Here is the input.
Amino acid sequence: MMTISSLKKETKNQEIEGLPDPPYVMMSLLGYQSQLKPLVEPGIHVLQYQLIAQSENNWSIKLHAPISGIVDVVEYNGQNYIKITNDFKNERMVCVPPKLAALNNQDILRVIRDAGIVGSGGAGFPTHIKYDVADRPITHFIINGAECEPYLSADYSLMNQEENHLWKTVQVIQKLIKAKYVILAIEKQNRELKKKIEHQISQLNINIKVQLLGNDYPQGSELQLIKTVTGKIIPKGSIPAHHGVIVSNIGTIKAIANALYQGIPYTERIVTVSGEKAKTRGNFLLKIGTPIHHILEQIGQDWQPDDQQIILGGPMMGKAVTHSEESISKGTGGLLLLRHLKTEVFNCIQCGYCADVCPQKLMPMEFARHAVRGNSDGLNQFDLKSCIECGACAYVCPSDVPLMSSIITGKQLIKTKL
Ligand code: SF4
Ligand code: SF4
Here is the structure.
């Protein structure tokens, strides 16, 4: 692991702001290991919060309209989307919060499922499946409030500014999964939050331990977090619940709180907009499906891919945006505008920094060398499949070797050779 500069100062203490709603939203129909099926025909009018798509497999992942307007189903960049053109009438479904005291465990799982809640940390795993542990003993419920990627402060601003129902929701989930210990993990650099949250939970008489983590990267990645908090080492490919641990991001807790206490499905989230090329920085409450170009317009910037590198997520694990029509998803915590790096595989100077910081003890320079040659045997020999895609190697590389793109290409190459 390594310590990296946090670069959060400019956004973490700003008020969470809204932006004007976009003229349309683009809702991806790609769900966790599944393709969602539209439940609405092109041309029809939908209300805000209306169910518009769901997966046909057992995951039962659901998508709701974040705005009211006219539906279209479009293909874009090889992916299918539901596009809703905003009528700006804000006509919405009547949302009735469930009577919490009358809900049994199956009812709570159903509320979470029907609100379309998936992990807000990026992987998009359906939360009702994660919490359906039946009689499997759960010792630790860890709430991940450690946003270890530079720039990102969406989760911090959520914990700092929106105490409403967050901790009561944690208590509901603790009872649901029958967790023995509940731990909220935040980074040391945010230690000012600890006292504030401890005061809130003591007022509510809720038993949550607030644990400070080191500022090392990737402290917030699931396996690392579990090891730090519980001492347990979860074998790769194994499910944490099978080892008595469930981890949820604080943003996921907020989405559940909205469903339990307001009856509102997962249709908006807080996103950090930042980066050295961003003229306006802050944390914004955005509708899921908001196109990137709309956000850029609202902060007074143009789409200039030659001059900026635009990232959805954090600089370490985020995804480079290739078109301004790409949009905010349920797992998007950040939109970063960074300087453009000119990367070159053969610039490696064999300094070894990438291997020094790799939490998996891999040799990332070898991935670049073998991926560019299409050598899957070489990639396997250096154990590419153990890479957790944390981005630490690319961050420290002084020669801007494109390690992350090599890793992603390399993994695809291995799959095709299976
Ligand atoms: S090789 Fe993978 S696990 Fe290791 S630092 Fe790079 S991205 Fe992280
Ligand atoms: S950090 Fe970059 S330059 Fe150094 S060995 Fe790794 S890939 Fe090569």
Remarks:
- The pocket of iron/sulfur cluster (ligand 1) is lined by residues 357-360, 362, 364, 387-393, 407 (CB under 6 Å).
